[in-house]
Design goal:
The complex is a heterodimer of chains A (421) and B (156). With 421 residues, chain A is α+β, with helices and mostly antiparallel strands. Helix content of chain A is 22%, strand content 26%. The longest helix of chain A is centred in the last third of the chain and has 14 residues.
Chain lengths: 421, 156
């Protein structure tokens, strides 16, 4: 690795071990971004690649990214899922140029038609032995020496993860093994899923502003006014946050569990957001979900599996959101909505209608894109100045309420460790 | 199909986009029948036969709720829309229903004055006549620009 990337970036971190504030330089320095691509995205992390249901049959493939590195996910004839960097072993061109498709088992670079199988091994080089006695590769050229750069893959209950670190622990351990976070992942991926569709958002902010957002229950009832306006969610509701390996986190809440006392406290605080009853939906079918789908009262689960995945259940909507960083001030968010293979038509319809709530045009959640943008705009020249992450304490641990930033502190704790800051 | 029909349909579409561009969004649901179908669907889903739309309203009430949320609940950068529509074709006419396709481009201008191409696509409309007036029974906006910049709150 080059020395430039390996030199820590002279950031104004708080003393080692403290995680309740972060210098803004981590959000706007291209050298920090380069270091993240080395030490996080190509380091000891599991990166979300897609759903197994996106490549259901042998020969199916999907192009995606780990960090800003183009990669391809395939399913081979053995039924297993493979992945490799989408960079021809010859001269570096993209081998796969569409978002998804199905192949006959070979992937041919258009430039010189070098050809690779689903597992990324080189299987064909045109004119390898020359043409009419001219040219050709040297005698010692061996196709086995030129595979695509392979990625270790694990299909975890239908969610596909990849890592460049072949010594990595397995996904189950990464998610905390016998942890609440892992239990929530297994709760959602409890049976085969089907893809309902995609949505993509391009956001002019550093990816970590969004990572913070997905670990931040504090903002939910303050930024997202739709909840309050229509009485869907309040900070006073029963819920909590759990962490595993510090930066894999889950926020969850149950509906209809506000105590009268906590409602009165919220009302008395005269928050601009407390306007329950001011508006009612003309068409209530939007909220007519199906309760108890998972045999519990949980109506909101936001799993933030770093560095690249958010899994959500909000009411009956299910989605994975893949974070694809582009540079220090831009990232893409790729949504894949899903249901279960055994969903009945009524449940299909419920999920499709509730997508109005969650997504790039989601009436509940669209503000998350905006909040990331206005943070990036504000810190254009801030480097040493730090944010404040003290809601609910100064350390990172499980908490049984939602008035907290403990999960964001967990993110930064792990981030500093991986980045060797 | 008559020239008068085409003229009337393009008039409806022009009035529809003028309403949005003038930010008179409270009038927007009036362009639809009470039972209607409004979808804004990414082209990648439409082409793949996947049903997910980013906006999906199956009643005039849901259209109104979108505008109430936009005005009172949602947080977003203030902006203008400018729709350009063209190439309207009547693709079918039967049982009092007119099918039409129209290309559209939506330019979005934020308060800093920069204009971006925000959303480009195609309207697939089903239009009916109610009390002498043309209304959308169905409006499917299939958008090529399937990577949405920041967020989409104002209807297309």
């Amino acid at each position: 690795m080059d020395a430039r990337v390996m030199t820590p970036n002279d950031l104004n971190w708080p003393p080692a071990g403290e995680c309740d504030s972060v210098p803004y330089g981590v959000f706007n320095d291209p050298e920090v971004f380069d270091r993240e691509m080395e030490l996080i995205y190509q380091g000891p992390t599991w990166n979300f690649l897609g759903l197994a249901a996106e490549v259901p049959n042998a020969g199916d493939y999907k192009a995606t990214f780990i960090g800003d590195i183009p990669v391809v996910v395939t399913r081979d004839n053995d039924g297993q899922i493979y992945a490799w960097e989408n960079r021809c072993a010859h001269r570096g061109a993209l081998v796969v140029r569409d978002n998804c498709g199905s192949s006959d088992g070979s992937h041919t670079c258009v430039y010189h038609q070098w050809s690779f199988n689903n597992q990324g091994d080189l299987i064909g080089v045109p004119f390898r032995r020359g043409l009419g006695g001219n040219g050709g590769m040297p005698d010692d050229f061996d196709m086995q020496d030129y595979p695509l750069r392979k990625i270790r893959v694990e299909d975890y209950n239908g969610a596909v993860f990849g890592t460049f670190d072949w010594d990595m622990e397995d996904v189950d351990t990464y998610l905390g093994g016998d942890s609440s976070v892992n239990d929530h992942v297994k709760r959602i991926f409890n049976r085969p899923v089907k893809v309902l569709g995609h949505a993509r958002q391009y956001i002019d902010s550093n990816w970590k502003f969004y990572a913070e957002n997905t670990k931040d229950p504090y903002h939910a009832s303050l930024l997202h006014l739709f909840h309050m306006t229509f009485g869907l969610y309040r900070s006073s509701q029963t819920g909590g946050v759990r962490l595993s390996n510090d930066w894999n986190t889950v926020l969850f809440s149950e509906s209809g569990t506000d105590s009268d006392e906590s409602l009165k406290e919220t009302s008395d605080a005269h928050l601009r957001t407390y306007q329950a009853g001011d508006y009612s939906l003309e068409d209530m079918s939007l909220l007519a979900g199906r309760a108890g789908e998972w045999n519990d009262n949980t109506t909101l689960v936001i799993l933030s599996i770093m560095p690249s995945l958010v899994i959500q259940q909000i009411q009956n909507t299910l989605a994975v959101r893949q974070i694809v960083p582009k540079n220090e001030k831009e990232f893409e968010l790729v949504w894949t909505y899903f249901g279960y293979e055994d969903d009945d038509p009524e449940l299909d319809a419920i999920r499709l209608k509730q997508i109005n709530l969650i997504g790039p045009a989601g009436m509940i959640s669209m503000e998350d894109g905006e909040s990331s943008v206005i943070c990036q705009q504000a810190i254009s020249r801030s480097r040493d100045a730090r944010n404040v992450l003290q809601m609910g304490g100064k350390t990172a641990e499980d908490q049984d309420h939602l008035v907290t930033e403990t999960t964001i502190r967990g993110f930064w704790k792990k981030y500093r460790e991986l980045m060797a800051y | 199909m008559s020239y008068e029909t085409l003229l009337e349909v393009t008039g409806l579409i022009n009035d529809y986009v003028a309403c949005i561009d003038a930010d008179e969004l409270e009038r927007w649901p009036d362009f639809f029948t009470p039972q209607c179908n409004y979808k804004v669907i990414p082209r990648e889903n439409a082409d793949a036969g996947l049903p997910v739309s980013v906006m999906f309203c199956d009643s005039q009430g849901m259209l109104k709720d979108r505008i109430v949320a936009l005005r009172n609940a949602n947080v977003f950068a203030p902006h203008f829309y400018r729709h350009l529509v063209s190439n309207t074709r009547i693709t079918g006419e039967s049982d009092g229903q007119i099918k039409a396709q129209t290309n559209y481009a939506v330019f979005q201008t934020l308060l800093d004055g920069e204009t971006r191409i925000f959303n480009v696509g195609r309207y697939d409309d089903t239009i009916v006549r109610v009390d002498g007036k043309l209304l959308f029974k169905e409006k499917i906006c299939v958008f090529d620009t399937y990577r949405i910049q920041t967020l989409m709150v104002t209807p297309i």
